[in-house]
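Hi Q.,

Before the meeting this afternoon, I wanted you to have the flavin mononucleotide prediction in hand. No need to reply - just skim if you have a minute. The sequence and ligand are here:
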Amino acid sequence: MQPRLMLAPMAELSHRALRELVESFVNQACPAEGKALSAESAAPKPEYFTEMISAPGLLAGGPLEKWYLDPGPRPERLVYQLLGADIDELAAAAALLDKTGCLGIDLNMGCAAPMITRTGAGVRWMKDAGRAARLVEAVRRVTGKRLSVKLRLGAGKDFPFGTDTAGRRSGGEELFSVLEDFCRRLVNAGAELVTLHPRMAGEKFRRRARWEYVERLRRALPVPVAGNGDIASAEEALAKAAAGPVMIGRLAARKPWIFAQALYGAGTPPDTDLYRSTRFLEETALRFLDLLAQYQPPEFHLSRARRFFHYYCDNFTWAEYVRNKIKRETGLAGIARVLNEYCRGNESRSLTI
Ligand SMILES: Cc1cc2nc3c(=O)[nH]c(=O)nc-3n(C[C@H](O)[C@H](O)[C@H](O)COP(=O)(O)O)c2cc1C
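Predicted structure with the ligand bound:
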């Protein structure tokens, strides 16, 4: 079975500039093997989820909305993610997106940031299965696009490590049955794909993603279930994708070539000399800055560059040093200078990847 990989929706990261960079690796000849992915390649290319788009913001039609809506470079593989707390607003926003050439519309039922949940959006939907199903029904009525939902294990703070009377761990069983029921109601209401980030709302990135729940949900639901969380290498993505769709988040900013590596499949060395070289890392970083300048408005440049380099700097031996220098810069040119100086001065030093 061919893997199906997806770029996760990530605020300030999953925008056109990152998609362009990822796609450039996917389409270029594999440097290590001299292979190119042909247009007819059997391996499905990645789907790109956008960062969350606020439904009320979209309906208000502010001047920056067009940047969130930019579908490039591959509209046919783009999935818009909507965030909101109100059924009518989300349905109206979905009706607008239905007129675009996108592949799908995703509903955010997983964001656990307090400023979002306070408004009733994100993972708060998981607290009321009936209302969440009514949302899916309402959106289903206005769009023929593939409708999906991204969620977590539960809206609670911590994983319920409870035990039953025989001393067996039982909290997870109850949790799973609530999750399964929740998802079934969404599927009956018209959801065609579910993405599970198997952590509780209160866990943020603590503990590990509990992929065993992705597997259980896959067995329980009649629709595809994408798994998401903590993918750390192309090999891991490939191995997990054998069982169903896999969504990659932070790793895409750390190593934007990761989708290309996963697509070329077994036989492609995941860490070739090229991927280790300072020049390659510098060139990729500068290319990202160019794409940011080209495809994002000036108001977004700094925050998005900082967000990206927060992860990308992990490729450098002195990651924290570069990260801090980048944080102090106030423009893209300054960030490029920091990278030039670091990479040129460290040509001969070993890198961590
Ligand atoms: C900077 C950042 C922004 C995020 N924004 C969103 C978002 O807009 N919508 C969403 O559903 N999840 C969002 N997430 C969660 C990711 O989609 C994903 O579930 C999470 O990062 C786990 O996957 P990973 O371990 O591969 O990064 C965000 C995560 C990060 C790190």
